[in-house]
Amino acid sequence: MIINPIGIMVDSLRLGLRDGLKKSKELGADGVQIYAVSGEMDPANLSAAARKELRNYIASLDLQISALCGDLGGHGFQDQTVNAAKIEKSKRILDLAVELGSSVVTTHIGVVPEDRNDPIYQTMLQACEELGVYASSLGAYFAVETGPETSSHLKSFLDNLSTKGVSVNFDPANMVMVTGDDPVQGVYTLKDYIVHTHVKDGIRLRQADPRQVYGSLGYKPMTHESIAEAATSGDTYRELALGEGHVDFDRYFQALQEIGYKGYLTIEREVGEQPETDIASAIAFIQKYK
């Protein structure tokens, strides 16, 4: 039996913020994750009064914010020439999360090179160190989403940082679809870093180069549109409804319980023409384990 609260990625409902929040409550969620990189949720567009009003509105629905999504896309933090601006914006998203009552901002940082002497590795390490120190000063976490590299390699990267301010948003489907890594073993490997999770399923059609999927320098920059298109009709992987892919949820949920994870299981649905129906089915799927 699992005791974790269930979250919904509001943007997956494609209803806009307020309607998405109301629908999340109707569907039975305990909390929500919200993109906070552009539009009305861009920290630059939210005054202090607007932040207070939004926090009160979410509370009035008896919801919590499981996390904000601060994924800025592109090449992650691989490009030294743009990192200063990305780090600054990421800090403002962390500020916003804390003001709204959450301690987690999830993101993709780009694919961590295998060679730690690679200049890109060092550039990413430097950016994450700065963000980790800042997040820790707020009692918060900047959570790297799994998928671009194996769990063991991600752990070795995180182990080089001075704090756990940069931690992990664990997405089992990304691991199955892109690297072919075992998400169950990944839970045990990354147990000291997991602060948020996504609930998603999928299959791998053929071996993929993570650098092409997640936009490393020298490759096409990552966008969520390109990720969704590849997951729908590409030739390397498919996102599927929970239970229809290769994530072994019996063992995966058991692993999360065994490491003592008590945080959110947040449903993310990046494909499909009926997101509300799919997310309702996902909640029912998770409830079977409660």
From TrEMBL:
Record Pfam families? AP_endonuc_2
Q: Which residues form the Xylose isomerase-like TIM barrel domain?
A: 22-288
Q: Key word Cell wall biogenesis/degradation present in the record?
A: no
Give the top-rank taxon of the lineage listed in the UniProt record for this protein: Bacteria
| Gene3D superfamilies the UniProt entry points to | Divalent-metal-dependent TIM barrel enzymes
Q: Which InterPro entries match?
A: IolE/XylAMocC-like, Xyl_isomerase-like_sf, Xyl_isomerase-like_TIM-brl
Please provide, alphabetically and separated by semicolons, the GO molecular function terms listed in this UniProt record: isomerase activity
Protein name according to UniProt: Sugar phosphate isomerase/epimerase
The organism named in the record is Paenibacillus qinlingensis
The lineage is: Bacteria, Bacillati, Bacillota, Bacilli, Bacillales
